[in-house]
């Protein structure tokens, strides 16, 4: 069994991005600038956004954090999106999800100019990804593909099972795993809460991407010998063993599943760090305004 070290791969890619940013700056180019909008004080979102801002600093980007209390109105948030769309200084921005119930995530996502949508959540980017056109790829699935590539894991013709059908992981991951070429060319099955015989389906899989958000859902008896297991779960489970009072727990029962795998990602330190790196890559791309991705169509 080989552990897929997302932290190490992410550090390497950050180094590559930092070198490119240094070159841009040396040539008198514009420093890439990412803005992040955070609504409320959800512990998970606070951590994710703080990590994104820190990563920007590490590679030499500019970053701006815009905060709102959870009683912000949809109108105010949409006005903020509009300001960021029209701020030439900001190359790309994200609105951290989830948003409070009184705000429509769809409305906010659609209001973002797709040329600044470095999360890759806008329907234009999702649609372009679906048909294999240049676009901002959704960060987590793109991070998974990068890990498969860097570890030279064979995907062509493999059976891939995706657990979860969310718009930000399951669906885009399914599209990327089935895309033409490497990494891709998989035969993909998507399982969700209504799927029957999940255990039997998983046992057929050469590659499993677990993105259900159910801690330790995938057990050893659901995994075939030699499978590749990618764990996207990041549930904060209460724990009296950690200083923070919680433990980040994946969707895979790691201790029992790992011995059966050819490759497996840990939680934390697997997919998580790669998600942030994908965001940095998209921001770098957004900064190069002449790219196909950001050209107005
Ligand atoms: N919430 C969970 N993951 C993400 C992400 O990648 N981007 C945003 N904006 N919100 C999230």
From TrEMBL:
Pathway: One-carbon metabolism; tetrahydrofolate interconversion
One GO molecular-function entry: methylenetetrahydrofolate dehydrogenase (NADP+) activity
EC assignment: 1.5.1.5, 3.5.4.9
InterPro entries named among the record's database cross-references: Aminoacid_DH-like_N_sf, NAD(P)-bd_dom_sf, THF_DH/CycHdrlase, THF_DH/CycHdrlase_cat_dom, THF_DH/CycHdrlase_CS, THF_DH/CycHdrlase_NAD-bd_dom
UniProt GO cellular component terms: cytosol
A Pfam family this chain is assigned to: THF_DHG_CYH
The reaction(s) this protein catalyses: (6R)-5,10-methylene-5,6,7,8-tetrahydrofolate + NADP(+) = (6R)-5,10-methenyltetrahydrofolate + NADPH; (6R)-5,10-methenyltetrahydrofolate + H2O = (6R)-10-formyltetrahydrofolate + H(+)
Domain Tetrahydrofolate dehydrogenase/cyclohydrolase NAD(P)-binding: 138-289
Domain spans labelled Tetrahydrofolate dehydrogenase/cyclohydrolase catalytic: 4-119
Residues that coordinate or bind NADP(+): 164-166, 234
GO BP field: L-histidine biosynthetic process; methionine biosynthetic process; purine nucleotide biosynthetic process; tetrahydrofolate interconversion
This protein's UniProt keywords: Amino-acid biosynthesis, Histidine biosynthesis, Hydrolase, Methionine biosynthesis, Multifunctional enzyme, NADP, One-carbon metabolism, Oxidoreductase, Purine biosynthesis
SUPFAM superfamilies: Aminoacid dehydrogenase-like, N-terminal domain, NAD(P)-binding Rossmann-fold domains
Similarity comment: Belongs to the tetrahydrofolate dehydrogenase/cyclohydrolase family.
HAMAP family xrefs: THF_DHG_CYH
Task of the protein: Catalyzes the oxidation of 5,10-methylenetetrahydrofolate to 5,10-methenyltetrahydrofolate and then the hydrolysis of 5,10-methenyltetrahydrofolate to 10-formyltetrahydrofolate.
NCBIfam families hit by this protein: PRK14185.1
Record text on subunit structure and interactions: Homodimer.
Protein's name in the database: Bifunctional protein FolD
